[in-house]
């Protein structure tokens, strides 16, 4: 670990608050909920809430990277979100595409490796191209791995994994948990250790349901546009207070 003199601003703050930088969650996943309610409360359109959500995400990525988190995965659009009004769906698609293009230079400068998860082939072509370009440009970066889950569903991911396993010719008796895991969208990512959800619902919402089986949940009542470094540090502090048992007995 770096000496105190080489810690960055956020790491110093974390240490002051009692966070052990040696025991950070390696993979943090976020359900960014509450954009719509946040906007409605201000009398604004829902899409403006998503726009503010984009700003909060920019900050969260920077913070997670500064703190030393290795993987950050965010739920940008679920496979179920197509059920929203057409205007909101197309607005979100455009916003994610704009963000992917606008942020690429900064992410690349910050050594971020961009990645995606979900049925990407069903997305509008412009968005697919932007995501593809982001992944190609940052493929050799060695900093935080930032995964955008877009058109992502946990059950759909398991279905897609099982289809691949069957197509690869595995016999039923040879199929193990490890084999299913190896056919998920991002088999080389560690499982999430900490899942953050904003806006107070105590739900998992079909996010990383296979790989998140043992992750620790942390929920704040604050809506996603209000998420900031204090929330991230609070979540990590709480995570470090938990005893992870993975089904075993821990004294
Ligand atoms: C849930 O809030 C949020 C979403 C469905 C979209 C998340 C999108 C962003 C944060 C926008 C930026 C994303 C990127 C990748 C640039 P909600 O609309 O369900 O809120 P509500 O429950 O209050 O209605």
Describe this entry's structure for a reader.
There is one protein chain. By secondary structure, the protein is α/β, with parallel strands linked by helices. It has one domain (24-199, 207-222, 233-240): Decaprenyl diphosphate synthase-like (Undecaprenyl pyrophosphate synthetase, 3-Layer(aba) Sandwich), CATH 3.40.1180.10. The chain has 8 helices and 6 strands; from the N terminus they run αβααβαβαβααββα. The protein has helices at residues 9-16, 35-41, 46-67, 86-109, 125-138, 154-167, 177-182, 229-241; strands spanning 27-31, 71-78, 113-117, 145-152, 194-197, 216-219. The chain has a 6-stranded parallel sheet with strand order 3-4-2-1-5-6, with helices on both faces. It is globular and about 55 Å long. The protein starts with 8 loop residues before the first helix and ends in a 10-residue tail after the last helix. The mean pLDDT is 96. The structure holds farnesyl diphosphate (FPP). Farnesyl diphosphate binds at residues 32-37, 50, 53-54, 57, 76, 81, 95-96, 99, 148, 199, 224.
CATH-defined architecture: 3-Layer(aba) Sandwich
What are the distinct ligands in this entry?
farnesyl diphosphate
Average pLDDT rating: 96
- CATH level-3 fold name: Undecaprenyl pyrophosphate synthetase
The neighbouring-strand order within the major sheet is 3-4-2-1-5-6
Under CATH at level 1, the class stands as: Alpha Beta
Distance between the termini: 28 Å
Using the CA coordinates, give the radius of gyration.
18 Å
Strand percent estimate: 5-15%
CATH superfamily: Decaprenyl diphosphate synthase-like
What is the chain-wise order of helices and strands? HEHHEHEHEHHEEH
Q: How many beta-strand elements?
A: 6
Poorly predicted spans: none
Helix content: 40-55%
Q: Main sheet?
A: 6 strands, parallel
- Globular, elongated, flat, extended or rod-shaped: what is the shape? globular
